[in-house]
Amino acid sequence: MSTLLNDWRHRSTHRRVWALAAPMILSNISVPLVALVDSAVIGHLPHAHQLGAVAVGSTLYTFLAWAMGFLRMGTTGFTAQAAGRNDSAALRRILLQGLLLAAGLALLLGVIALPFSHLLCTGRLVSRHTERQSAAGHSARHQSGQYRAQPVVRDGPGLGRGGVGPGVGAGGVGR
């Protein structure tokens, strides 16, 4: 226990911990901010059902964003082990596996969303005066949500190697 207390008295330890923790804190804060901005923009429209639709969409978006967190946590642990062994082939394999899994999940979610997008765009689930708005909003939301898993996987290897930022490029695989 005394070793732990001694380590926390050193400023260099604090800097190293915050170098890893600060980007993660900011990325975790950004997910609910998407819903907040959507609500602030749509809140100025005259009908309450529009704000209700944003609330449902924001809840689904937040759920999917947190549900994909396992990709980041899984790649971070495996990447840390491979980096400890100085195994660059394993680092590339872990990154590729994570990206392929993220792409597969995005494709699966896109296929699942297709029947619902047809219902939304034809106006069967929404009233007639929001039909155009739902088509435009669905397209923007679908594009942003479909690629949510990729940055999660991309950042995992960088964190697993004790770095900050993406797993490929500066500070990533092959440094």
UniProtKB/TrEMBL annotation:
Pfam families: MatE. InterPro entries: MATE_fam, MATE_MdtK. Keywords: Membrane, Transmembrane, Transmembrane helix, Transport. GO terms for cellular component: plasma membrane. Residues 157-175 have a biased composition (Gly residues). The chain crosses the membrane at residues 20-45, 51-73, 94-116. This is DNA-damage-inducible protein F.
